[in-house]
Amino acid sequence: MNISSPNNSTLNKAKLNLISLLFLLTLISGCSVSDSDEKQEAIAQEEIPVEYIKLTPTDFRTRIAEAPIAYLPLGTLEWHGEHLPLGSDGMQSFSFMKDLAREVGGIVLPMLYLGPDMMMAEGEKELYGMDFWLSLEEGRTYMTPQQLDGSAYWVPDELFHQIVEHSIKQLARAGFKIIVAHGHGPSTRHVIAHWKEWEEMYDVQIYTCWSWNIRGENDQESSEKSNREGLGIMTDHAAMNETSLMMYYYPDLVKMEQLSPDTSRWPLAVAGKDPRLFASAEQGQSAVEFQLERMTKLLREALQRKP
Q1: Is the pLDDT score of 21 beyond 60?
Q2: CA distance 98 to 96
Q3: Across 18-24, average pLDDT
Q4: Is residue 295 part of a domain?
């Protein structure tokens, strides 16, 4: 067998090919490492939670530096019809605020479960809010005043005022410049009644999520569209709006079958448009998307003028 030795030209070509291959592998490897680092950094940023209770101090510093916004969900443990969970107030506001924090930045506090409301004494029993509120409307008989099952949230206005005021004080101390408080109707209205004094006391900006913004900055067109099309955040009681929001955020927890199918019989302690006729997850999604866009714009403007 005749085996010839490779000539110099062949060896040189082989060397050049090997060098080129090694150079190409180095480039690919470098790009891969760089790309991997960037992806890992992006994933790490995405993995920082928005919920206050889940943050480490390092995570807290990162989020508050990006957007010093605190979100305070004003919840209750309150009757919301036979079809919705007792924690619906806090669940709606908490979920919407998490969406908002992902869009704008900021940190979402745990939901409160205590709140103010109307109170009426009936013999030795005290009734609160929806226990009797609908019975007060003249000319329409919705319900007989009664203690509604599961409601356990009421505190006097004075105590609720202290809870919220001291929460704002602590949040300002922690470095927050903007506070969004929203949820249970009477709780939200209490914030609206006292926002100015709290802003002056603690050098913060305070907002709710209703379209008629407490600072007088509401967009009239957005407000009218919200009211006309039912696109608010918690603008009724267990009726079309709140039921739609719960259908969107917690579809497995909404039990429409527990309401009577007879729409001539009004559901007990439900206030607003009949959820059996008008509520849907699609309606809830539309409300969330509409209000997310509105609140995102509002809060980004607020960040530009933060103290």
Answers
A1: no
A2: 5
A3: 51
A4: yes
**What single string gives the DSSP state of each residue in 224-268?**
HHHHHHT-SSS-SBSSHHHHHHHHHH-GGG--GGGS-S-TTSPPT
Per-residue CA distances from 186 to 2, 76, 178, 206, 259 (Å): 100, 11, 21, 17, 26
CA triple 249-254-257, angle to 5 deg: 155
Segment 243-261, tens digit of pLDDT: 999 999 999 999 999 999 9
Whether the model clears a pTM of 0.85, i.e. scores above it, the answer is no
Residue 297 carries which side chain, given as an amino acid letter? K
d(CA 123, CA 203): 45
State how many domains the chain has: 1
- DSSP code at position 154: B
Single-letter code of the amino acid located at 79: W
283 has pLDDT over 50? yes
How many Cβ atoms sit within 10 Å of the Cβ of residue 299? 23
Residue 226 forms part of a structural domain: yes
Q: Is residue 18 part of a domain?
A: no
Residue range(s) defining the domain that contains residue 249: 48-304
* Backbone phi, psi, residue 157, to 5°: -55, -40
What the block records as the tokens of 197 is 């004094």
Q: Which two tokens stand for residue 136?
A: 């007060």
Helical pair 281-304 and 240-249, crossing angle rounded to 10 deg:
90
Whether 85 and 107 have beta carbons less than 8 Å apart is answered as: no
**Does the residue 10 lie in any domain?**
no
The model's pLDDT over 22-75, given as tens digits with 9 standing for 90+, comes to: 444 444 455 444 555 555 544 455 689 999 999 999 999 999 999 999 999 999
Give the domain CATH number at 253. 3.40.50.10310
**Given CA atoms 201, 203, 209, 215 in this order, what sign does their dihedral have?**
positive
Tokens of 16: 């050049």
